[in-house]
């Protein structure tokens, strides 16, 4: 039985190693840097290829701006590394009256597209120098669940559970948007 476990561990280790190698071999789509002005293009050209490849693997949209972090942004990254500022601030609103969910979702999406801060990623893991990257597009999900069929107690229970789950969720500044909304 012991030998079987060792064989299994070796097979899994080899598969994981092959998967990691394939992940590292991904080609960078050079088109992601096409939307930047000439000044920002110079910044990219000055970066080592390995850094460009790492940035390209983390970004899934065209980049419209890239720059090194400010002193305040570096402080924020330091706080995140030390375990602070890793949660979203929770705000709950109760809307009454006639509500149009489709209009709210369209306005939210339009707002995210219009403000660069909502399309910004802060990339630092595995990079020599952290960078701020503004993407042309950023998925802006605004999930809505109709809870009107639930009674007041079940609605309160549902909202408390959603809030508790969101409070446990870790914020990843390299992937997560700075603003998340949900509607119930």
Characterization of this structure:
A three-stranded antiparallel sheet has the order 1-3-2. With 184 residues, it is mainly alpha-helical. The protein has helices at 2-24, 38-46, 49-58, 71-81, 101-114, 152-168, and strands at 63-68, 120-123, 131-135.
Measured between the Cα atoms of the first and last residue, the distance is 52 Å
Order of helices and strands: HHHEHHEEH
* Unreliable spans: 21-25
The geometry reads as: elongated
Main sheet overview: 3 strands, antiparallel
- Cross-sheet strand order for the largest sheet: 1-3-2
- Mean pLDDT across the residues is 81
Q: Helix coverage percent of residues? A: 40-55%
List keywords for this structure.
single chain, 184 residues, mainly alpha, three-stranded antiparallel beta sheet, 6 helices, elongated
Characterize this entry briefly.
The chain contains six helices and three strands, in the order αααβααββα. It is mainly α and 184 residues long.
SSE order and pairing:
Layout: H1 2-24, H2 38-46, H3 49-58, E1 63-68, H4 71-81, H5 101-114, E2 120-123, E3 131-135, H6 152-168
Antiparallel strand pairs: 1-3, 2-3
């Amino acid at each position: 039985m012991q030998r079987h476990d060792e064989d299994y561990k070796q097979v899994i280790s080899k598969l994981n190693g092959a998967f990691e190698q394939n992940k590292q071999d991904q080609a960078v789509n050079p088109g992601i840097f096409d939307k930047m002005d000439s000044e920002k293009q110079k910044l990219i050209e000055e970066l080592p290829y390995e850094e460009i490849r790492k940035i390209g693997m983390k970004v899934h949209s065209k980049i419209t701006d890239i720059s090194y972090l400010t002193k305040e942004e570096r402080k924020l990254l330091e706080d995140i590394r030390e375990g602070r500022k890793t949660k979203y601030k929770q705000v709950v609103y109760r809307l009454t009256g006639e509500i149009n969910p489709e209009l709210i979702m369209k306005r939210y999406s339009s707002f995210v597209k219009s403000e660069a801060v909502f399309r910004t990623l802060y990339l630092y893991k595995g990079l020599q120098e952290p960078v701020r990257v503004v993407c042309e597009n950023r998925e802006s999900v605004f999930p809505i669940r109709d809870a009107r069929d639930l009674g007041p107690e079940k609605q309160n229970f549902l909202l408390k559970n959603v809030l508790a789950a969101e409070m446990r969720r870790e914020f990843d500044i390299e992937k997560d948007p700075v603003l998340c909304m949900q509607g119930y």
